[in-house]
Amino acid sequence: MQTPVIPESAPFDPQQRAWLNGFFAGLLPTPGSAAAVLDEPSSLQEEEFPWHDDSLELSERLELAKDRPLPLQLMAAMAQLDCGACGYQCQTYAAAIADGAEKSLTRCAPGAAATSKALKKIVKQNMPATQTTGITPAKAPSNDGPQLFETPLLTVKKLNGKGSAKDTRFVALDLTDSKLSYEVGDSLGVYPQNDPSLIGQILNQLSVPADTPVTVCNQHVPLEEALRYSCVVTTLEEQVVSLFAQCAMEPLACEELQILAENDDALADMDLLDLLAQYPLVRPSINTLIASLPKLLPRLYSIASSPKVYPQEVHLTVGVVSYEAGRRVRQGVASNYLASRVAPGDSVKVFIQKAHNFALPSNSNTRIIMIGAGTGIAPFRAFLQERSTMTIPGNTPNNDTESRGENWLFFGDQRRQTDFLYERELLQYQEQNVLSRLDVAFSRDQKNKVYVQHRILQQAQDVWQWLEQGAHLYVCGDARQMARDVDQALHQVVSQMGGLNEQAAKDYIAQLRKNNRYQRDVY
Description:
Layout: H1 14-25, H2 34-39, H3 43-46, H4 58-65, H5 70-77, H6 90-98, H7 112-125, H8 127-130, E1 149-158, E2 168-174, E3 187-190, H9 196-206, E4 213-216, E5 219-222, H10 223-230, H11 238-247, H12 251-261, H13 264-268, H14 272-278, H15 286-292, E6 299-302, E7 313-319, E8 322-325, E9 328-331, H16 333-340, E10 347-353, E11 368-373, H17 378-388, E12 407-413, H18 416-419, H19 423-431, E13 437-442, H20 452-458, H21 460-468, E14 472-477, H22 482-498, H23 502-514, E15 518-522
Parallel strand pairs: 11-12, 11-14, 12-13, 14-15
Antiparallel strand pairs: 1-2, 1-10, 2-7, 3-6, 3-10, 4-5, 8-9
Helix pairs in contact: 4-5, 5-6, 5-7, 9-14, 11-12, 20-22, 21-22, 22-23
């Protein structure tokens, strides 16, 4: 393999080029590493991975992998979505942890705390196998990484009405002068930046000049740039706290930090600024601190537009994360970067993440059922745009268009008055017969909360009929709650309407997955 080098002519400064080269260096394994073991022809590659099924509970997956080699045990703890949000696939992320190339155990966003706790337990049980000497170098890189582009921001507007408890933004980026192309179902990778005001507070706590040189990806860059562009500072991981414990001169502080490092619940509520403020007398060397911080990764957003309708644009639906904890306002890095720290005309660094088994049926006559909640509407807006370019069912196809299958959308959010995202567009698609059926669930509009899974159960007979007639089923939304509840509702529909026992219903759903008729884009 050859080392990928971001060209000098690419629209990145030296520090950003160094970070990107390092990021791509982590995507493929070196020969002989644990990741390579899984990719090379071997007995491991020939094994089946029965736990690689996101419908299985974590405990079931771990049980299936308990007697397998360490990388496979770690793989079973992942969310099994291969979503790419961690910078790996489930298999390669596990292998990178196993061979010591990856220290962070919290990259699996869909798996969240449950996955990180399971990973931590497995790693500690196998500590001799995972010990490395010093800092493990980045894995051998590849030239096959995604193409990177700087695209100007066109507009950002709030989708929620006044009084909503949510802040969801429509984001449009200009593709006119880029060679970036995408298909519906793909995601857009966005390279965010940390909040400059937060970085300023961290620098004040460190009492170190912003231009202090530090090493990032084997290059010297100013400390302020490293913290802003390259390091995760909004969450806190065990290895950072353990570093502080090693540097603490007072026995009491050392003991407190050691206990904190083992307390996943406490760490979940803290960030780097909290740690620095609580332990002002504990300061590791700046380069050691930077080396211990996880690298800031791109964020993936489901694309909410069709290139057939918007050939020069790409649209996103972004839920802005902001909440108060510990008397401070905490903000999501990428969502607030897009919502408030980039102005129209400013460039955003992006790439296309091709869909992993999430696409419209090849036969445009096929019916589809789309189930989304909140920002999970994003890919379905793209699907409807795509299908709006086709003819109405029953019309004669010609050279320019195809016939169009029926489209059924289940959408849910908090309140119809303030949270019916893209309402005008959806109702217009209904009038045009692009959207054949629309069932909505607004959980806070009545005493008893109603969610999309309840609407599915209410329409069980028709859902079953559509499935029996060959419809494809799509789900987009929160993996930990919404997608799980929808999956349970679907199993109930299949069991009741099909007259199937529990195992037969599971087999039916499994066959839908195998035939790519049940696809999920969850996070």
